[in-house]
Amino acid sequence: PSPPPVPSPPPRPPPSPPPVPSPPPPVPSPPPRPPPSPPPVPSPPPSPQPRPPPIPSPSPWPPQPPFFPPLSPPTPSPSPPVSPLPPGPTPNQPKPPPPSTSSNSTSTPTPSPAWNNFAGTVRAYSYMGQVNVSSNPVASALPHIVDGDDNTQWQSDACLPTGYTARPSMNPLLFLCNGSSPTGAPPSYCTASNGSSNLGAATDTSVYTGAGIALDRTRAPAADAAFFAVIVPGGPRVVTRVSCKGFSTSNVTVWLIVQPAGLSTQQRVQVSTFVPSVDNYNWIHVAGSWQDVVGLRLQSNASFTLTEVAVQSGPCLEQAVVDMGSLREVGTLRFRYWSPDAEHSNMSVSADGVNWTDMRTFMDPTLLAAVEIYLPEIIYIRYMRISHKVKEDGDFRKVYVWGIDAYDKYGRWGAPPAPAPQPLSLRAMLGVNGIWGWGFNKYSDTLRKDNKGPNMYTAVASWARSYHNMHWDVSWPTHSPKYNTMATTGTDGMWWLNWDREYAAWKAAGLKVDATFQFVSDVFPQSTWGANVTDTAYKLGYAFGFHFGPGRAPPNCSLDAIEVGNEPWIGYNATFYQSVIRGFARGVKDADPTFRLLPCALQADNPYGEDKNNGNFVAPCLLVGGLSTTRVPLLDQGLASLPRLPPYWMLSTFTPTLGTGPRTSTAP
Length: 668
Description:
Residues 1-115 are annotated as: Disordered. By secondary structure, the chain is mostly beta strands. It has eight helices and 20 strands. The chain folds into three domains: 130-155 and 316-413, Sandwich (Jelly Rolls); 163-312, Sandwich (Jelly Rolls), CATH 2.60.120.260; 426-619, no CATH class.
């Protein structure tokens, strides 16, 4: 906000002990602050006592960049002490002392619980079950469908241009000539001109073997003196593609043999001509739609080699089937797929693997999010299947399946906690998000007479969450915010801004105040935080805690909680946020141990929502190299580990997390 300058209110007389919880209306400016005491302060004294002098050897704030105007003269507020944390943007945690081995030692300290990305979720019935797929049965990929991880997947092969030739559901000629046809047809269905050899190689799926089709000299120079013919098993059939590969010295003509229903005679339909100068050693694919096909014939007036021949008679279908090993009582299905190359996708279940029931049909092929179905009634199944009808208008079309899971009626979060009477009123449970001036572009104490601003929400909310923008306090991360001179010269970031006046109005309205110290990468990119991000954040946290902490500030303008960032997910990676929260949290607690401290808004649902520049998963932001479970006391929002971790839509940085102690249940 950039409102016109507001005249400074007259100074308040020194407060008389004990401090008045809230001033009478209208809201005055906050009282002068008492002299500071060195950190840490365990708790405010019960009665007024003399404060120790300021810190004797303060650590100066680093100078501002040369392209900024000179800073104003030094203020009387004490500078924060040198950060007790090791240097570097992501310092290592100090190792705890080893457990005592003396005879007086009674027990070994309990180790910190290990972080589990999937804590709080129930293992699916299908977890690591048997998987069968229509193509690409790579051993390393099949477990991805049943590993519970939404970010690992199985990818199909492509039916076209040549993948279909190895699929018995699509190519009725598969292994026909060597006597291994999946249809059971005999090798006698394959015939050739006299002297031909190795006919089995023409349908063995290998282009490195070939059938030698000889020239029958008793018929030479007839156009069909060298020929290869095959009866299509299961004919008459609809054929949509003919493929062949080989080499020759003369043209080879490819025919389909058709026999329309009701006719006793067969007809030849020419499909293609194999030209040696162009087609030798290349796959020849001809697409079309031929009805009533009963056979195929290749012929030439010279000998030729046929390395492979196939016809497509069936659609390109891909599927992944999960076998849970036994019949299960299922109330929830969850699956994730992606198939933009499919015409449609279906999900079906079965008790015996033979009779299938469709649960979802013609699903959106482009859907990328997981589908979760809470069934209206329990079903008893063993098998689950995702199937895709793949488009055939192009080559190399593939589909993906990330996971197929089944649970009981409660789903992956397990049974909910038992209902219990709520001891708090609705107002005590609710809070409201606000900002300086509440959208009116003026101090909140001027809104009271119209019952606007913070006063408008006190009937329904007990907390107010302030978007306290960092760039309103400092023009550069390494600057001092100058909180103690706000009433006369504003902050380092805004010359007119006096937070004490603003927050006094919020407190006078009867609201507890939670400030989210909001920083964003487009205002303060990582490079602006200096060489030691942790130390920069420590000084900011110390200054904030020293000025606004409930153990430091007068009660009519102190804050009740502080969040280290709002949603700093874009442009800041987890490593950077570790450095910020580690320094800021220690600075706040060193300045005022009574100040309630929370992390930024994070999610616990997608452990893989991180990359080198962005991300918001809770574990890497708070635990990996940052605040380990042994250092969680810095945060007043306890971190859940096994056995419970609420899903992302139950994690909040507001009222539920402002309670005391760790959150270890999913109760809202």
